[in-house]
Amino acid sequence: MAGEKEKVVAAAGGCCLRPFSCEQGLLSRPDGSAAFLQGDTSVLAGLYGPAEVKGSKELPDRAVLEVLLRPKVGLPGVIERSREQLLRQTCEAVVLGVLHPRTAITLVLQVLSDAGSLLSCCINAACMGLLDAGLPLSSLFCGVTCALDPNGAIILDPTTRQEQEARAILTFAIDSPERKVLMTTTKGSCSVEEGPCFPP
Amino acid sequence: MAAAEACVGQVVLPGDVLLLPAHPDEDGERLRLGGGAAPRGRLLCGPGLRRCAAGLLVTKCGLLRHRQTGGGAAAGGAYWVDSQQKRYVPVKGDHVIGVVTAKAGDVFKLDVGGSEQASLSYLAFEGATKRNRPNVQVGDLIYGQFLVANKDMEPEMVCIDSSGRSNGMGIIGQDGFLIKVSLGLIRKLLAPKSEIIQELSQLYPFELVLGMNGRIWVKAKTVQQTLIIVNILEACEYMTAEQRKQALAKFSGN
């Protein structure tokens, strides 16, 4: 599988996504659910809302958005918390929370398997979950991860091995109508000139 | 961007902008003089759509629907997005089934499946007075209508219409069976001359209460018959018309 992908990627000049697929509405209890697969990475999203607010988090002018990222094993740690924050900010930019004030929207993301580009898979699963729940959105969004290998070439949708070898890993969230960047995060180091990943 | 009229009946996604015929692409700066302009019909923006500078912004995914309201002016009518959803958001005038969760002084608290519990005054029943209180217990099912449903306020329900008659609303009896389905299926069942209801009614007589919040209460002569109806209704969510007819043919045999 990995060898095959490398061959395909080499043919496409490094710009190739692994095959992806999505299933919506597969869980019966949440208001919206989606499973997103990118190669061997898969994330399951469950969405509840607009529901009653627990505790004193209630906001008088908009909905409270809560994102919970559950790792495959064990309890969520610092990395999960930081990704939750990024996902929450991305979703808040798109969800029209003002239409449902004093309510809570809870997004639970369960990692089923991590084979690289986990954050972009989470972003995609979140978008599909929001869509399935029928929440008011100003636009759709997608996530994509790029890795810069030591030679400076860009690899889209890297696998775990490619991520380990990479000099820098950049993740972007892009919205649908104007293809604007909603969120970006970097791991590793790269120069400003090396950031041509920004869409025109 | 596409013209709203061209997209009717097609799938639209959040972020799509629908152009309205009332705003042609030419520059909007120019003022139209004279009363020659056609009287523009009132445009109604239904669920899943918002007004924006360019026209209508889609906020939900689903099929775009349109209904002409009177007149015949090009820009008039109502546009909305027919989407499949599970969570109910209270809407004024909707008939729903609520479960009594608390009795707090002179109001009952009802769970209607929304983000907040709805309140129902004990005086909002037919024939209720200060002395003659309705017999409502915690856990009872109530079929009522939203009098106040506002995103900023607690929703308020009543079991009487504007003339003080119950009009079918009130406490639902002790027996029967309550199920929860998606809001899309409820709308399909409540449509005038719904095929599903007509086909089911040929099986055997039964009572049915449909709440816009996705709740269905069913009662037939026996528990077995009730459960059959319930199972068919639940399965309708995923069955095609053809599959449904086959399933119903099985039951109508015996």
TrEMBL record, chain A:
Gene Ontology cellular component? Answer: cytoplasmic exosome (RNase complex); nuclear exosome (RNase complex); nucleolus
One annotated GO molecular function is: RNA binding
Q: Does the keyword rRNA processing apply?
A: yes
Mind telling me which SUPFAM superfamilies this protein's record contains? Ribonuclease PH domain 2-like, Ribosomal protein S5 domain 2-like
Q: Does the keyword Cell wall biogenesis/degradation apply?
A: no
Q: Which GO terms describe its biological process?
A: nuclear mRNA surveillance; poly(A)-dependent snoRNA 3'-end processing; rRNA catabolic process; rRNA processing; U4 snRNA 3'-end processing
Subcellular location per UniProt equals: Cytoplasm; Nucleus, Nucleolus
Q: Name one Pfam family in it.
A: RNase_PH_C
Annotated ranges, domain Exoribonuclease phosphorolytic: 17-136, 140-189
**What are the entry keywords?**
Cytoplasm, DNA-binding, Exosome, Nucleus, Phosphoprotein, rRNA processing
Relate the assembly described in the record: Homodimer. Component of the RNA exosome core complex (Exo-9), composed of EXOSC1, EXOSC2, EXOSC3, EXOSC4, EXOSC5, EXOSC6, EXOSC7, EXOSC8 and EXOSC9; within the complex interacts with EXOSC3, EXOSC8, and EXOSC9. The catalytically inactive RNA exosome core complex (Exo-9) associates with the catalytic subunit EXOSC10/RRP6. Exo-9 may associate with DIS3 to form the nucleolar exosome complex, or DIS3L to form the cytoplasmic exosome complex.
PANTHER family noted in UniProt? EXOSOME COMPLEX COMPONENT, EXOSOME COMPLEX COMPONENT RRP46
The record's family statement is: Belongs to the RNase PH family.
Q: What name goes with this protein? A: Exosome complex component RRP46
Give the organism the record lists: Falco tinnunculus
Q: What is the lineage of its organism?
A: Eukaryota, Metazoa, Chordata, Craniata, Vertebrata
TrEMBL record, chain B:
* Pfam families listed in its UniProt record: KH_6 (PF15985), RRP40_N_mamm (PF21261), RRP40_S1 (PF21262)
Name any one GO molecular function.
RNA binding
Record CDD domains: KH-I_Rrp40, S1_Rrp40
- GO CC annotation terms, alphabetical: cytoplasmic exosome (RNase complex); nuclear exosome (RNase complex); nucleolus
Q: Where is the K Homology domain?
A: 176-224
InterPro entries xref list? Exosome_RNA_bind1/RRP40/RRP4, KH_dom_type_1, KH_dom_type_1_sf, NA-bd_OB-fold, RRP40_KH-I, RRP40_N, Rrp40_S1
User: Which SUPFAM superfamilies does this entry report, sorted A to Z?
Assistant: Eukaryotic type KH-domain (KH-domain type I), Nucleic acid-binding proteins, Ribosomal L27 protein-like
* Domain Exosome complex component RRP40 N-terminal, residue spans: 10-84
Q: Name one GO biological process term.
A: U4 snRNA 3'-end processing
Q: What keywords would UniProt list here?
A: Acetylation, Cytoplasm, Exosome, Isopeptide bond, Nucleus, RNA-binding, rRNA processing, Ubl conjugation
- Compartments it resides in: Cytoplasm; Nucleus, Nucleolus
The domain of life is Eukaryota
Describe its partners and assembly state: Component of the RNA exosome core complex (Exo-9), composed of EXOSC1, EXOSC2, EXOSC3, EXOSC4, EXOSC5, EXOSC6, EXOSC7, EXOSC8 and EXOSC9; within the complex interacts with EXOSC5 and EXOSC9. The catalytically inactive RNA exosome core complex (Exo-9) associates with the catalytic subunit EXOSC10/RRP6. Exo-9 may associate with DIS3 to form the nucleolar exosome complex, or DIS3L to form the cytoplasmic exosome complex. Exo-9 is formed by a hexameric base ring consisting of the heterodimers EXOSC4-EXOSC9, EXOSC5-EXOSC8 and EXOSC6-EXOSC7, and a cap ring consisting of EXOSC1, EXOSC2 and EXOSC3.
Similarity comment text for this entry: Belongs to the RRP40 family.
Please state what the protein is called: Exosome complex component RRP40
* Protein source organism: Falco tinnunculus
